[in-house]
Amino acid sequence: MIRVPKWRNSKGSITALSAALAGVLVLLGVGFFFFCLYMDAQKETKNAIDAGTLNVGKKALDDPFELIPPVGDKGCFFDVTSDGIKNDITDCNGKMNLRRVNRMWAEAMLFKINAMGADADGTSDKGDTNASQALTDCKDISDSLAGKLTDENKLHDYFTEIAKLNSVRMIGQSATVDPIPGSGWQTAQMKKEGESNVVLGGSSGNFFPPPGFTWNSNNLTATTRNPQPQGSSGITFLKGYHPIDLGGDQYWQVPFLFDEKPHMVARSDFESDKTGPSGWDKPVPNAFSAEGKASQTGKPSEKATSWVLTNPRQTFKASIPTGFVHIKIEDPKVQYFFLPHVGGPFLPVGFLDSTYGFTPSFPTVTSPAPIGGVLCASTTIDLGLGGDTTGRSVDELLFGYPGSNIANLEDNLLSRCNQMISKPGVTISKSALHNALSNVENIAFLAGGVTQDFYLYSPDGEHIKCRTLALAITEAPWLAAVSGNDPDGSEKSYSESQGPGAIFTGEAVPDPTCTVVEPAAPGIPCGEEIYKVQDFWQSGTGYNHCLGQVRCQRATDCYTVSIAVETVI
Amino acid sequence: MSSNSRKRRSKKGASLIESALAAVVLIPIALATVDVMTLVFANSVNDTVAKNCARAGANQPNGIAALQAANKCLATFKTSGIVKTIVIDDLNYTGDDGQCICKTTMVVNLPIPFPGFTSVTFSNRAVEAVVGKADADNPAP
Known about the structure:
The complex is a heterodimer of chains A (about 575) and B (about 140).
Chain A lengths: L12 H47 L6 E2 L27 E2 L4 H21 L5 H23 L6 H8 L12 E4 L7 E2 L6 E5 L20 E2 L15 E3 L4 E3 L2 E3 L11 E2 L2 H6 L14 E9 L6 E8 L6 E2 L6 E6 L3 E6 L8 E2 L5 E2 L8 E3 L9 E7 L11 H6 L7 H14 L9 H8 L3 H7 L5 E5 L7 E3 L1 H7 L3 H4 L8 E20 L3 E5 L6 E15 L6 E15 L2 E4 L3
Parallel strand pairs in A: 5-13, 14-25, 15-25
Antiparallel strand pairs in A: 1-2, 3-11, 4-11, 5-7, 6-7, 8-9, 10-12, 11-12, 14-20, 15-16, 15-17, 18-19, 19-22, 20-21, 22-24, 23-26, 24-25
Chain B lengths: L1 H6 L6 H45 L4 H12 L8 E12 L4 E16 L2 E13 L12
Antiparallel strand pairs in B: 1-2, 2-3
Helix pairs in contact in B: 2-3
């Protein structure tokens, strides 16, 4: 039997294989295409969420906010509800937000520092109470602001504002980005111990504190950025998320590193800083997270979370912009002392309430009989008063001859003047203080008897001036409402001194049977004026805008020596 | 017996023809897949360019600096035989609104051109919040 081999029919085998392969290829290709679309969609979604979150960080600086009224409760902080540094009250809108919150804490801190200085001086009076009230008010505002910043509903719109504008077409042509409410929206307190955006005036070694107060260097820092950015050299900032302990009270700052822009941060960094600083119950946050999704009906959606650290990128100086010092020049007094008998003592004789002015005066004064000198019935003297007040500026009246021991008053005024300055980097030196007090226009007002009250203030946050109220108001309208406020401390005498002045002539009338030997003849000098000056300082915390009051009392004591002897017949 | 011989067709070359036919289908599919992958990748690059340029511009203090920064960022993306051109169509720095909007256009040459289908143009837009605007009244000390 012949076996015929059975050949398999191989027709179409490659075709079938190729068809199968083509099908697999197409499937793989389509699958890979959709996979790439999905990955791209993920990237687009992340980009959109990042952009939205960055906008949240940026806009959270200005809104939400707490409203502060211009007067009354919490009104002491109204003058820092602006982003300007020109002490222009019209710039203030009463909105306390994340951008400005450090200004408020710094101002409360200055009230306390002034109270502590007054405590050390024994002149605190109501200053401590006011400083405590300011701290309470500051905390209330800060806590309320923190509550609003942690309320995600207030931030959703800022997220959507930018996120929706970014393309997510890999999801679908009409896909949109929306926030996902819930646990993806959180806050954190990052960069603890880093610098805040509030600087002190002066430099390390002298920040012009009031006498009796010393800065704890642990509360201050240079920029913590590495490398240090340009312009940061020599600048001292308050520390952020660090308890600034002043007399047992804690003050706070939020860290905003110098010249750093709002930027995205890593999740791990954010998560590790979600716990606030120890001691601050309701810390104001400086970092936010946001969660959103890109979706289109009927298609798979993508979601993502981003984290942002915000920064207003704006530096402020610790200041009390609408603070002022009241300077009152009292009517100069004159007292007369006549030597009643040999060996003294000198006794004041009448005329205790006499005053003189700021122009020369030439009174003729007669001692009342019978006391006028040794064996003199009376003495008539021709005075020239006003040598210590005529043509003298406020500066000369306060600190000029015979002034001495002026350091304490000078330091208090210097400290207060620097607290009025709002522009970072500007310091008021001693010479600038004296220049302001030497304003020549005030000489005319004194000489003309127009006023003896002057105000030391900063019209622009950068300079200080000493002017009458009428003129000061033209530059600082806010003074009109607060100029009548008294400082909340008690008054203390600073700098009492005296020195020789002009000599004067006179004529003595002897007792009966006596002959005048001193002055030898009319027109011969028989007495001397002694100039005196006493400055009083009444401390103010600035809580009611008054940072203090200086009262200057000038006086002239006129000592007359008239001697007569028994006439030898 | 002779009729059976005449009826038996020659099978020589049948596989070759089947392979050729299969190749006519398979090769275009494979090449098209390469083109599609290139397009997907190019779109992703365009997205990245738009985003990075918008972010770079948003970090600047004014419109002129924003455009310079965006152009500098664009320069880091090199053209090639496949990415023919990539340009910034428009950079809108609306400082008042606080947005930087960057529109980019990328022309991609298909690595395997098909008749009438040699290049594709991609456009994209990215929007970023401006964070670089400094306050003129209160610069850093």
